[in-house]
Amino acid sequence: MTAFARNLTLALLATGCLVSLSPQRAEAAEPLVAEAIINAPLATVWQAFATREGYASVGVAQSAVDLKMGGLLRVQPDPKGTLGDAGTTVSEIIAYEPQRLLSLRVRQAPAGFPDAGAFANTWSIVYFAPLGAEMTHVRIAGFGFNEGPAAAALTRYFEQDQVAQMRRVEKHYWPLCALCKVETP
Q1: Is the dihedral of CA 56, 58, 62, 63 positive or negative?
Q2: Is 20 left (phi over 0), alpha (psi -120 to 50) or beta?
Q3: Predicted local confidence at residue 167, as pLDDT
Q4: Cβ neighbours of residue 49 under 8 Å, at least 6 residues apart?
Q5: Residue 141 contacts by C-beta under 8 Å, 6 or more apart in sequence?
Q6: Has residue 165 been placed in a domain?
Q7: pLDDT per residue as tens digits for the range 99-145
Q8: For residue 85, what are the domain limits?
Q9: What pLDDT does residue 7 have?
């Protein structure tokens, strides 16, 4: 566990935010992790994950973001669908710190997901860190996705949905930044 994660956990414990975690959750499997270095400033990358305009800029057909504790993030990837229909994924915002952290829990799985109830024990934390003025490190840690009887389906969801979101953002700011071009042989 990193010092940041340990300090965050201690702070949440001290404020009572983690009291609902069961003892087995504390010893749960390691999170699924996806990371990328995005060739854009931190404020720009934050917008891509935390605003409707940001989602639109990276190719998500429809979205709505109510950026507040308990607010909802609704994403409809199908341009023929309707935001709020059965194909919409709805996530609750558990916590956020602007331009540093966004924590989400899926409340409504998209239609056709084989075990929608399995999302009840999953959540993700998206960490943002500046790498100089023009690049941002993004790390998504998904918890509870690789546990229980629905683990395979949940893992595929993490890989297809959450990793795909990061890849869309990464691709949107391609080509390489000036520093990367200099360092690439």
Answers
A1: negative
A2: alpha
A3: 82
A4: 102, 126, 128, 138, 165, 169
A5: 31, 32, 33, 124, 125, 127
A6: yes
A7: 999 999 999 888 877 777 887 788 999 999 999 999 999 999 999 88
A8: 29-177
A9: 39
State the CATH number of the domain containing residue 164: 3.30.530.20
The answer to whether 81 and 88 are in contact (CB under 8 A) is yes
The total number of structural domains that make up the chain: 1
Q: Which 3 state secondary structure label does DSSP give 11?
A: helix
Calpha distance 136→23 (Å, rounded): 35
- Strand partners of residue 54: none
The tokens describing 111, both together, are: 């239609």
* 32 membership: H or E segment, kind and range: strand 32-38
Predicted TM-score of the model (pTM): 0.76
Tokens of 89: 């994924």
Order of all β-strands in the sheet with 101-108: 32-38, 135-143, 123-131, 101-108, 89-97, 72-76, 62-65
DSSP-H helix ranges across 32-177: 42-50, 52-57, 151-157, 163-172
Res 3 pLDDT > 60: no
Query: Which amino acid appears at position 41 of this protein?
Result: P
Is 55 part of any domain? yes
Q: Which of 38-42, 47-51, 176-180 has the lowest mean pLDDT?
A: 176-180
